[in-house]
From TrEMBL:
The chain crosses the membrane at residues 132-154. Keywords: Membrane, Transmembrane, Transmembrane helix. Pfam families: 3Beta_HSD. This is 3-beta hydroxysteroid dehydrogenase/isomerase domain-containing protein. It comes from Sclerotinia nivalis. Gene3D superfamilies: NAD(P)-binding Rossmann-like Domain. InterPro entries: 3Beta_OHSteriod_DH/Estase, NAD(P)-bd_dom_sf. It comes from the Eukaryota. One of its GO terms (molecular function) is oxidoreductase activity, acting on the CH-OH group of donors, NAD or NADP as acceptor.
Length: 244
């Protein structure tokens, strides 16, 4: 829509002239996305939890983290497109949108493990301060360094660890937040889906994907069964692992 509004056809140019020969764009700056379709924070987190890894917390969880639910990210892009179209067709002076950058998040900065523990609780795990083992930051970074050294020796520097790599582990120890006030004032953006609702929907989707990936859940009947199990809160067994 934005491209069509800002790039008239050759016939329109001959008749009325090309008043907007350029393409109006904005830069939407978003953090990590979670929700349906996310294979990292959502799917990987639930998969690790199924192996009992939900009891571990890497770092002291004092730094702030700010992701965005996929539907909130889509909504922000739709508002930006609408604002560009309005700007292109309006002769009134308003806040300029084209050429600007906007940050959008769930607008709920918190510790990374605050979010992950929500995932685990909605998945049925008994996450409490007594059931969580906190791995100190210094030990975490040392493990990452050792893992990289082992990989370097074995693979002669041609391969690096997928998870235990310092550049990734450092993200757990740094504050990463975004100022969304500009998007609120100019685009009228607000997170449409709250964190609790977003996590609940994400966990449901994640379990359905894990069921398909494990060779189960194929066919409509199994998917309905997963939905029923989710509603009654029986997604975990006595051993604390996911039962699909």
């Amino acid at each position: 829509m934005v491209r069509a509004a800002n790039n008239p056809t050759s016939k329109e140019c001959r008749l009325d002239g090309c008043s907007h020969p350029h393409l109006r764009t904005v830069c939407m700056c978003i953090p990590g996305i979670y929700g349906e379709g996310d294979e990292n924070m959502t799917l990987l987190g639930l998969w690790l939890a199924s192996w009992g890894m939900w009891i571990f917390q890497l770092g002291d969880n004092t730094t702030l983290f700010e992701p965005i639910y996929v539907s909130n990210a889509v909504y922000g892009h739709m508002l930006a497109a609408k604002a560009l179209l309005s700007e292109a067709s309006s002769s009134e002076e308003t806040d300029q949108v084209s050429g600007e950058a906007f940050n959008i998040t769930d607008d709920r900065p918190a510790g990374f493990w605050w979010y992950m523990h929500k995932f685990y609780r909605f998945a049925g795990y008994n996450v409490t301060p007594r059931t969580i083992w906190v791995v100190p930051t210094w030990l975490l970074m040392m493990v990452g360094w050792v893992a990289e050294c082992i990989y370097w020796v074995i693979f002669r520097g041609k391969k690096r660890p997928q998870i235990l790599i310092r550049s990734k582990l450092e993200h757990l120890c740094r504050t990463r937040t975004f100022d969304v006030r500009k998007a609120k004032s100019v685009l009228g953006w607000r997170a449409q889906v709250g964190v609790d609702e977003a996590v609940e929907v994400s966990v449901k989707w994640g379990f359905e994907e894990l069921a398909r990936g494990s060779g189960k859940g194929k066919g409509k009947g199994k998917e309905e069964n997963v939905d029923e199990v989710f509603q009654v809160g029986m997604l975990h067994g006595k051993d604390g692992k996911i039962k699909i």
